[in-house]
Amino acid sequence: MLTLFIVSTLEGWPDIMLVSVDSTEKNEGPKIENATTYAYFYVIFILLGSFFLVNFFIGVLFLKYEEAQAAENKGYTPEHINWISLQRMVTEAGVAHEKQNKPIGLMRLKLYNIVTSDPFDIFIMSNIVLNMIQMALTHEGSSEGMNTFLRISNYFFTMVFLIECILKLITYHWNYFQTAWNKFDFFVVVSSVFDFSLEFIDADSLKGFPIGNVAKVLRVLRVSRVLRLLNKDKNLQALI
């Protein structure tokens, strides 16, 4: 039962599976891949015991939600429901941040036209995707040339996002921080710059500080840049 519980949590089950496939007879020592067919048990158990039950649970939630929604709309015609939806949409509508904070000065207006243009937006989104691919290329046993490429490309992406942040700060000034997405973006950029600066700090001068753990956390935060893609796609937002 303890074994099945561990497998159902999806944490640490590969170790148990490897021990199982190396098992032999009772009171005999293990032999590498003596019973590889035991691995199928874990695959089937996880599919039925974890994924199937989770999807079944979510399906029940959706069913209850639809029932509650039907009960809430009971007595209303489709015209009434459309009218209510339209009124809700009107009351929740607001001016976009870019339109509401359009600058007046000539230089800031030129920067505004740049940072709000589609080519600039596509360039930044492309860099986010490329940055995710670059981070995924890190692997054990990589060559010195690969490590140099990853380090230099990380500098490049950090500078791209830093320049983007500076341009938007110049364009919007303090109004830049009016949206949660801009605050999140600023936090990730600052974290990336701090992580970048740690590589040039003498390690001996930081003895006693958990600098290694801080660096790991900051590098993990860089992955969160991919969340910015949600701001550009309503379907992705709905999925999240």
Write structural notes for this entry:
There is one protein chain. By secondary structure, this protein is mainly alpha-helical. α7 (118-136) runs antiparallel to α8 (144-172) and α9 crosses α10 (211-223). The protein has helices spanning 2-8, 13-21, 38-72, 78-92, 97-100, 106-115, 118-136, 144-172, 180-198, 211-223, 234-239.
For this entry, give a set of tags.
11 helices; single chain; 69% helix; 2 domains; mainly alpha; Four Helix Bundle (Hemerythrin (Met), subunit A)
Q: Under the CATH scheme, which class of the largest domain?
A: Mainly Alpha
Question: What is the CA–CA distance across the termini?
Answer: 34 Å
Rg over alpha carbons: 26 Å
Number of beta-strand segments: 0
The overall pLDDT, averaged over residues, is 83
The poorly predicted ranges are none
Question: For this structure, what is the CATH homologous superfamily of the largest domain?
Answer: Voltage-gated potassium channels. Chain C
Give the tally of structural domains. Answer: 2
Q: Write the H/E string, N to C.
A: HHHHHHHHHHH
Portion in helices: 55-70%
The CATH architecture of the largest domain can be given as Up-down Bundle
SS summary, helix count? 11
CATH fold call of the largest domain? Four Helix Bundle (Hemerythrin (Met), subunit A)
- What oligomeric state do the depicted chains represent? single chain
Shape: flat
Structural class, by secondary structure, is mainly alpha
Major β-sheet annotation: none
SSE arrangement:
Blueprint: H1 2-8, H2 13-21, H3 38-72, H4 78-92, H5 97-100, H6 106-115, H7 118-136, H8 144-172, H9 180-198, H10 211-223, H11 234-239
Helix pairs in contact: 6-8, 7-8, 8-9, 9-10
